[in-house]
Every structure is written in C-alpha cells, then in structure tokens.
Amino acid sequence: MKKYILAAGALCTLGTNAALAHITLETQEAAVGSTYKAVLRVPHGCEGKTTTAVRVQIPEGVIAVKPMPKPGWTLQTKKGNYEKSYQLYGETLTTGVKEVGWSGGNLPDEFYDEFVFRASLAADLPAGQMLYFPVVQECGDATDRWIEIPTTGQDADALETPAPGIKLLPKK
Amino acid sequence: MNAAQSSSTIRMHTRPLVWLVAVLLTMAALAMPGRAFAHAALVATDPADGAVLTQSPAQFSLTFSEPVSPLVLTLVRPDGSQLALTSFRLNDQTVEIDNPETLKSGSHVLSWRVVSVDGHPVGGSTLFSIGAPSAAPVAGEAVDWTLRAAIWAARLLLYAGLFLGVGGAFALAWLAGDRRRGQRFVAAALIFGLIGAPVSLGLQGLDGLGAPLARFATPAVWKTALETSFVWTVLIGLIALGVALLSLAGPSGLRKLSAGAALLGVGGALAASGHASAAEPQWLTRPLVFLHGTAIAFWAGSLAPLALALRREPAEAKVFLRRFSRAILPVVILLAASGVVLAIIQVQEPAALVRTAYGRLLLLKLALLLFLFTLAAVNRWTLTAPAEAGDTEVQRRLVRSIGIEVVIVLAIFGVAAGWRFTPPPRALAIAAAQPVSIHIHTLEAMADLSITPGHAGTVAASMVIMTGDFGPLDAKQVTLVLSKPDSGIEPIKRPASKPGDGTWRVDNLVIPLPGRWNARLDILVSDFEMVKIEAPIDIRSD
Q1: Residues B153/B199, Cβ–Cβ less than 8 Å
Q2: A99: chain B residues, CB-CB within 8 Å
Q3: Distance of alpha carbon B68 from alpha carbon B115, whole angstroms
Q4: For A161, phi and psi rounded to 5 degrees?
Q5: Per-residue pLDDT tens for B231-285?
Q6: What is the ipTM of this complex?
C-alpha cells in the first residue's frame, strides 16, 4: 500500500514538473474577433541556465500586435506582410508584427517571469481549433525551442517541447 | 653427358635449392589461395529489407559489392503468387528493376538471383510491405546438394584436365625430350577436362537459374550459362585442352609451340572468371591468377609423366628429371608469391581463416600443401641426386613419392573446387562495411540517412536533407535521434554537424545493439519551425 502511495506521489510530482517545465500562455482560451492579452509564463531557464532572451512568433491571423516593454530587457519586433489583408476598426491591415523578442535580460533559473503582448484575433480564425505561438528561449549559448505543434491525431502531451497555444472560441 | 657429370651438376644446383625450397615451404604454407568461383554480396536494396511503404514503388533497386547481371527476378505477392520482373537496367553495381504493377497492401518479397563478374550466381530475397506488414509470403532458397556435388565433380574434372592434362602435355613437349612416357595418362586427363568443361558450364547455368539437375539439357539453362563470365573460362579452357591434345599427336616442330600456348591458356582460362580474378585491384589480381594457374599446371602436370618415365625408362628419364629440377625453382617461387598476395587480398585478416568457410578451406589446402612441399623437398634433397646417378632403389622410392604427390595435388584441386561455394572474407568484409541506408519522405521534408558501417558498434551517420518536393532545404540544425523501444535503451540523441559538402554528419555514434531501430531526424527549418521525420532502420549484427 505504502508503495502505491509513493508511486502515485512520484507520478504526480513528475507529471506536475513536466507541465510546469513548459513555457505556456496564462489565458488558454479566447474568442475569435476579440482582443487577446498574451502572458507568456517562463518557469525556468534552459536546462538550469539563466534566460537571456525570449522570442515569440506571431501566427497568421493575429494582428495589431503590441508588446509590453520590460525593464532590463530590450524589446524588438520584426514586421512583415500578412498572408492576406485584415479589417480592423475600419482600417485595412496588410503588414504588421510577425515576431516579438525580449533580449539582453537576465532571468536566473530559480526565478519566474512573464512576457506580455496584446493582439487582435482576426474574426475569420477557425473557432474550435488551437492557435499556437512558437517560442524560442535563449540562455546565452543554449537554446530551448518551444515550437512543436501536434499533428492531427497526435497527443499534445507527448511532445517534448510543445509550443504554447490557445483554444479559439466562437465569436461573441 | 655421363652420369657422374650430371650428378655433380645436380648437386651444385640442389644445395641452394634445398634451402630455397625450405624457405618457400614456410612462405607457401602461410598462405596459398586458389581459385574461388564465388559470390558478389548484396549491400543495399530499395525498398530496404523490412521497409513499410505508404505506396507502391515505381521501381526496385539492388546494389552489390561488385557488378552483377540478373538471372531471375521475381516478386512474390502477399497471396504467394509470383510475378516475373523482366524489365531492369544495370547501373554500375546497382540493378534497377521496373515495377510493372501497382502493388496492393501487404508484405511482398523481392526474390533475386544474379551472377557476378566472377561467374558465380547468388540469390536472396528482400521483404517489404505496402501499408502495413502482413504474413510474409514464402520465398526461399534451398541448397540443392545433388547439384552442388555435380558442380564440384565437374570442376574437379576441369582442373584435372587443365593442370594434369595441359601441364602434362607441356612437360612432355618441353622437358621429356623425345621420350613419350605418360602420354596416355596425359591424354586421359585432357579428355576428362574436355568432358568437365562443358558440363561445368551447363551446371553453372543450372545453378544460375536455381534449377534442378533434371533440367540440364534445357536451352534456358545454357543461355543463362553463356551470359556468365564463366563461359570465358570454359572457352579458353577448351581451346587449351584441344591444343594440348594436338601437341601430343602433332609433329615435333609444332609440339613445343602448341604445348606452350596451351599452358598459357590454362592461366588465361582461370584469370577469365572466379572471385580472385574479380577482386580489386584487377590489374594485380588477374595477372596473379594467370601466373598462379600457369605455375600449378607446370608443376602438377610434370609429376605424372616424370614418375612414369622414371619407372619405365630410368636411364632416359634422367634428362627429364634434371630439366624439371632446374625449372621448378622459379616456378614454385611464382606459385607461392602469387598465392600469398592473392590470399592476402581475399582473406584480409588472419581471424577470417578460422571464422569463415572460405578460410577453413584455405587452411585445409595449406595443410595439404605443407605435406606436398615436404614430400617435394625430400624428393629434391635426398632422392633426386642418387636417382640421377642411377640408383634403382632410390628411383623406385622417387616414383612412389611422386605418385603420392599426384594424389595430394588431386586432393588440393578438390579443396579448391570447394571454394566455388564459399564467398571469400574480402567479399564478406565488403558486405559488412556497407552502410545501411534509408530514405524518409514526408510532405514537409525528406532525408537520406546512411549509417556506416551498417552494423552495431561505432558508426558514422550521414544525412542529406531536402524539402518534400526535392528542393534544397537549408536547415539551421539537424538532430539524429535513434531509439529502440523494445530494448529498454533510452533514445540516443546527437546533434549533427555540417562538414560543408551539403550533408549533415554524426561521427563516433555508438549503436549498442543490432536489430530494428527507429531513426528520427529533427530538422530545424527556421527559428520557429521544426520538422521531425522518422523511419525504421535495420542495424546488422556484424
């Protein structure tokens, strides 16, 4: 009996650790056509090393991105053309931020931090599906890439380094 | 020339000769390869053995350790029905075979039989599946022992004809003066050879098709035989045998010329096919086989006429004995030297002598040779001089001893004929050193992965990465992950480096176990995009 409890305890601990170990988004659901505040949670460094940069790729359909500056970190964005044009408050958007990066910072492995940006989710994004924001975490010369996107039928939990994602809800 | 003179001449020659023979004995005992009419080894197939394909392939390919020509190519469908594959192309050492039909799902066997440059047919099969594996259809190769015995016996007859017959004719023409003792023996050997040569060719055809002895007379068998390189051995051999036979009957002026040509024909016949001739480097092996064969014919061929001459006409045989004693030294040097070099090329490492069937036959041949050389040395050392001097008792002993030599020589031919069935370590080593390769193809990316050598131990992996539509893929990073879920071994994960020739490499990779591994390539296409492709790969045990 004692063994079972120990085993169960061990499993719980391991399972929790695995989940905690990933970079995730705080709000994991959002309606299409709404404004979404993305909070990237960085729970640790790359295999124990201090995090020095976090970069996130903005998926197609996520428009009008505005990242939040962070003291001690250099904020940079990469802009590019959208695959198609989007209407937002009567304006036609064809280009915008495709990548956001906070670099030059110092986040030791034992500390936790969050990286924030705000964006609009286009109304024509497919509700009911997942939308992924691949993240590259740099720790000096080490890199962790949270960029894996499950293929159809693949269990997202089985991925070693899954990309953070949200579930798209129908337009309110 | 009187007896005393010739005796002293011989003594002068025999003193250093004794020592040289002793040295040669040791050398020759170390290594003497013979003829090996053996195999090309299969090194790669596409689809790979055990592969599971998503769709029917347009073509198959088989890659061998040396150039081959296909004899029979059959596809066995999952229901056991067979389809003959007749459309194929030769591309260096690879046979590319067209697949005439769209294969249904299930396991298929590609059964092949090819003949290599050395003239020996080999067969095997490779299993692959469409969609998912099903129960394997039956395709296999049983050893036809009757056929093997027939091949061996015919080969022995051919050797007897070439070495004892043609060699004997040469000895009669060049060494025996105008004495013709042993002519009947030589003629008989030549006739054996004339029978053995075409029979050998027909059996080669049977073996090539994997057909039983009963089909010996069918045209397909002979057509197959004529397409092998062994046909050249038989053709040149037949000419040599015929010319040698003519030299026995011909006018004395032509005798020497035709017997000499026939002797060279023996070397030519042996160099025309066989594994030793097919080995690289060809510029070295073919001349060596030629010299080896010619030297054997000279030596072995002289024995019987010499013994018969000594027994019947001891007084007149002295000239024969003296000429032979003089000539044999350079001949044995040639024989031993060419043998040693060929053995080194074929066997490669001493351990292979014990480990492989080819090596064990070689050891057996060496044991027989040791005996033969001892006997020959005793003959030269202690018997030749008194026999020349006219000692009849010694002459009788010499005749007996030479008789035993002939028997040993026949036994050596028997062993050499056995090589017909064993691949030399050289060919086995080529097969072992070959990489295993797989082709992984997905919509996002494709890769050719080769692991060299393709067996467990320290290996190197080489990868060529392309996009799914054959375009260039400039990956930022490639990681090779090898896993064997059924072994309890954790996945082996190694980042690949880029040596600059367009490939990705992982060196000093240790694969601890043979068997089926899963190879996965994690290809970082861009900062945020990773493509993972995987496929099973079979690692050999050695």
Answers
A1: no
A2: 528
A3: 5
A4: -130, 75
A5: 999 999 999 999 999 888 877 778 888 999 999 999 999 998 877 777 778 888 8
A6: 0.74
Bridge partners, residue B452, by sequence: B460
Measure B37 CA to nearest chain A CA, in Å. 55
How far is the C-alpha of B542 from the C-alpha of B540, rounded, in Å?
Answer: 6
| In contact, B341 and B284? CB cutoff 8 Å | yes
Angle between helices B167-174 and B252-272 (to 10 degrees): 150
- Listed in sequence order, the residues at least 6 apart from A5 whose beta carbon sits closer than 8 Å to its beta carbon are none
Distance from the B525 Cα atom to the nearest Cα atom in chain A, whole angstroms: 11
> How many other C-beta atoms can be found within 10 angstroms of the C-beta atom of residue A27?
10
Q: How far is B529 from chain A (nearest CA, A)?
A: 6
Joined tokens for residue B267 = 């070397």
pLDDT at B140 over 60: no
What pLDDT sits at residue B224?
78
Cβ contact B530–A145 (<8 Å): yes
The count of other CB atoms within 10 Å of the CB of residue A170 is 9
Tell me whether residue B251 is exposed, middle or buried, using C-beta atoms within 10 angstroms of its C-beta: 0 to 12, 13 to 18, 19 or more: exposed
pLDDT score recorded for residue B168: 93
- Convert the pLDDT of each residue in B101-139 to its tens digit: 888 888 787 878 777 766 666 777 777 888 876 665 544
CA distance B473 to B470: 9
pLDDT at position B542, please?
65
Shortest CA distance from A134: residue in chain B: B528
pTM: 0.56
**B493 and A CB contact within 8 Å:** no
Beta bridge partners of B51: B128
- Chain A residues bordering chain B (beta-carbon distance below 8 Å): 55, 57, 99, 134, 136, 145, 147-148
B447: pLDDT strictly greater than 60: yes
Residue B525 at interface with chain A, using a CB cutoff of 8 Å: no
A70: closest CA among A40, A119, A105? Answer: A105
- Beta-ladder partners of A167: A29, A130
User: What's the CA gap between B266 and B269, in Å, rounded?
Assistant: 5
Interchain contact B527–A (C-beta under 8 A): yes
Report yes or no: B314 and B397 within 8 Å, Cβ to Cβ.
no
Cβ neighbours of B524 in A, within 8 Å: 145
Interface probe for A, chosen from B528, B531, B533 (most Cβ of A below 10 Å), is B528
